[in-house]
Amino acid sequence: MGDAMGTATPLPRVNGDFLVRPRLLEVLDHWSPITLLLAPSGAGKAVLAVQWASSAREAGDDVIWLDGEVDDPAAVVAALARHAGEPVDADLDTTLRRLRRGLRGLDRRLAVVVNNAEPIVEAIGDALVEIVRDCREVHLVVCLRRRLDPVAKALLEAESRVLGLSDLQFTVPEIETLARQHGLTLTSDEAESIWTSVGGWPALVRTGLEPLPNTGSRSVAAWSPRHVGWFLGVNVAPALPPTALAALCRTALVERPTYGAVIAATGPLDDPARITLEALGILDPLVSEGEPIVRLPPLMRDFFRSRYDERELGPEVEVHQRVTRFWLDAEEPRPALEQAVHGRCWALAVEIVERHWWAVADADLLEIPATEVRGHPRAEIGRQVVLPDDPTPSSPAVRAWEAELRSASAEDLVDRAGEPDVLALLTLLMVRDRSRGEQRSALDLADRVETVVDPAGLEGGAAPPPIARAALEAGRTRLLAGDVVAATRMLRVADGAADDLALCAAVTGDRPATAHWVERSTGAGGRIAAALDALHSLDRERSADALTRLRADGIIRDQLWPFAAWAEAEHALLWGGRSRVRAEIAATRGAMTRRRETGWLQGLLAAVEADLCISLGRTAVASRLLTETDVDDVHVLLARARLERVVGRPEEALGLLDVVDAAGDPSALVSLESLVLRAWCLDETGAGAGAADALAQALECVRRDRLVLPLTHVPMSLLARHARTVPGLRQLADRLREARTRAPYDVVDELPELTPREAAVLEALARGLSLEEVGRELFVSRNTVKSQASSLYRKLRVSGRADAVRKANRIGLLD
After folding, report:
1. Which of 32, 524, 629, 633 is 20 to 30 Å from 88 at the Cα level?
2. What is the pLDDT of residue 350?
3. Which residues form the HTH luxR-type domain (predicted)?
4. How many domains does the chain have?
5. How far is the C-alpha of 542 from the C-alpha of 548, rounded, in Å?
6. Helix (H), strand (E) at residue 36
């Protein structure tokens, strides 16, 4: 059954340069009763439909091609009736009823493709749906520029597929392929840039890849944003109804063009404007409920923004103000601030910062001129937070506020706790001083915040948002200063402090608490904690995965990066990569000249880098790093003790460990690290019983706290010597071998202590100078140089210049 003439009508011709997209053809090849191509002009609906119809005919299927611009509903019904072998009645409804029976009896598949289908669907869409939904051999493909209610709803309710603008947009690889067809080779980054500039819109991509008309005899293959602008100016803008053009120009001013924000800018859309914006794809109505999606690619946005005429459309600032107020009414301060800044509505921008500082704290506040924020406490101090190096002095009003808050007694602060600005400004001042590296001042302000917050009275209950925020920042201030116990106390009052609490727990070695908070965390602190916890489990894969994610997230720009460096170093000490990690840490510390880590974090970084240097045998560099830090934190003391043990001075190491133990650090991790290092030192001094006792205590900590990492910091030979006398030590050693960890620290020669003149002679000899040349450079005689060189060789325990330079390079004396 079927009429050859009904299916042999020629298909429209398609430019051979148009891209064939297999991914979309494959979707259409899965036959269903109805496929709806719902997308604006220029989205490539007709091209796709023709390409697929052609392939369907080649595959042996029957195809009827219809176009709503030339075929009326009667012609559509007649074509279907001829194919089904049914007579065409003067009454369309009668013919349509018979069609359902006739099309069910087809012995071959039939594709009915309707382009520009709006008039046909509006007239007989419901009947067509009823006919084809039960005819398994019929595939109805409908191309629409906009949703038609209620017909589109009926189409969607049938067994159907919908391909919208998001499906028809070019992908980056498709842009690369199309460019090659035009003789242009693009990199992935260039194709990505094109995709972003036009939103993958097929018509605009093709337009930008075509040469401009009347440019001469030579055609140069290149991407041309100017050509896209020319196309919009010649073919799009002149055809727009006035209300649609006005709406587009106003929409182009909206920084985040959601439907609500667009309506705030344009006012209610009349029918011509709405229909036009849908046809262009600016409004995508392909939603079953809720607001339409707004799509305005950057090049199109720039084009219509440049067409904004204040004489016809009114002042631009009024549009920005309306959109800003829309976002404020929606309780969305970030997009409100973005819109206000873009429109240079400075009074509004300052108002937003004053009311919603914490919600916009990481926005680009530097766009607001300093003169606009002066005298507005939260905005002015907030600007100082994000610009700690700004030399602009505080305004008199803010200086007065700050002096009053710093001089107020604890009782006065408690009495004034109900004043909304007191706690907010205390918190902001604390964060500002922390960002400036003024640790002592930041901690003093943290004390004042704690006085107002009173964590003991709030723990276990829900704190109001201002108190929760203050507690969070005070806790972070204490964490970055190394006071983990006080930090944890404050953070338990805060809302959203899981990342910081996870890190606090990991730093102290509280593994149950670490696991608890890591499950609830989403940021860098939680991932660092997860990496440290995986190291205690000797889980190489899990720790590597956590560290990879941290690097991908750009942790180097975060204030927590020293903790991440610690985790990286421990991973390298266990499984390799020490030189790379040490070089990365050193390079980052050198490049981050504007960073102001707290003294405690500087000490932690020095200890971490020193441990890597000790492991690499660069003991001179480690000594210099530890000498340069003026922090006597336990991490620095442990690194110094480890260095003393490695260079053969166990008695000095034991003295440093006594200082660590006397400090009374509550961290289980520190206690275990001290015990293990003490056992190694005692073993060297011949106090085997003391070493065995320290290892037995360490194993108790391992069983109680499930902390294994510090046991990897001593040679396996130490564990083997005491395996018989310390129960459980052999099993632990076996576990370390199964994890394929390495003992990172080897005993080396004693670190030489050179005089300044000996160091100068060594540096000159390393440059290849003769003794005479060294003497002339240092203004001393050859014999004096010879004497100093002999002393240098003796301290280095070498016999000559070459060995001295070689060893000095190895241990880092020449770094």
Report:
1. 32
2. 93
3. 747-812
4. 5
5. 10
6. strand 34-38
104 vs 512, higher pLDDT:
512
pLDDT, tens only, 462-502: 678 888 889 999 999 999 999 999 999 999 888 789 999 99
Structure token pair of residue 155 = 């189409």
Are residue 644 and residue 606 in the same domain, yes or no? yes
Q: Which residue has the higher pLDDT, 688 or 759?
A: 688
CA 347 to chain centre: 31
Amino acid symbol at 183: G
Q: What is d(CA 460, CA 470) in angstroms, rounded to the nearest whole number?
A: 16
| pTM for the structure as a whole | 0.69
Determine the Cα–Cα distance for residues 256 and 323; give it in Å rounded to an integer. Answer: 9
CA atoms within 13 A on the CB side of 675: 22
Q: Are residues 616 and 721 in the same domain?
A: yes
Query: Do 19 and 157 sit in the same domain of this protein?
Result: yes
CA distance 553 to 571: 19
284 phi/psi in degrees, rounded to 5? -100, 105
More confident residue, 187 or 290: 187
| Residue owning tokens 């037995």 | 696
Inter-residue contact 792 to 598 (CB < 8 Å) = no
Q: Tens of pLDDT along 418-459? A: 777 888 899 999 999 998 888 899 999 999 998 888 765 555
Whether residue 148 lies inside any domain: the answer is: yes
Residue type, 133: R
For residue 695, count CB atoms less than 10 angstroms from its CB and return exposed for 0-12, middle for 13-18, buried for 19 or more.
Answer: buried
Backbone angles phi, psi at 75, to 5 degrees: -65, -35
Q: Which of 651, 737, 736 is nearest to 686 (CA)?
A: 651
Same domain, 14 and 161: yes
Q: Are strands 293-294 and 283-284 parallel, antiparallel or unpaired?
A: antiparallel
Q: Is residue 417 part of a domain?
A: yes
The reply to whether 13 and 26 lie within a common domain is yes
Please give the average per-residue pLDDT across 28-51, as a whole number. Answer: 87
Q: Which amino acid is at 325?
A: R
pLDDT of residue 314: 94
| pLDDT surpassing 70 at residue 219 | no
Asked whether the beta carbons of 9 and 65 are under 8 A apart, the reply is: yes
DSSP strand E in 42-101: where? 62-67
CA distance 473 to 432: 11
Give mean pLDDT, residues 585-614: 81
What is the Cα–Cα distance from 139 to 23, expressed in whole angstroms?
A: 18
Residue 292: which residues within 8 A CB-CB, separation 6 or more?
259, 278, 283, 284, 285
Query: How far is residue 380's CA from residue 392's CA, in Å, rounded to a whole number?
Result: 10
Say if residue 17's pLDDT is above 80. Answer: no
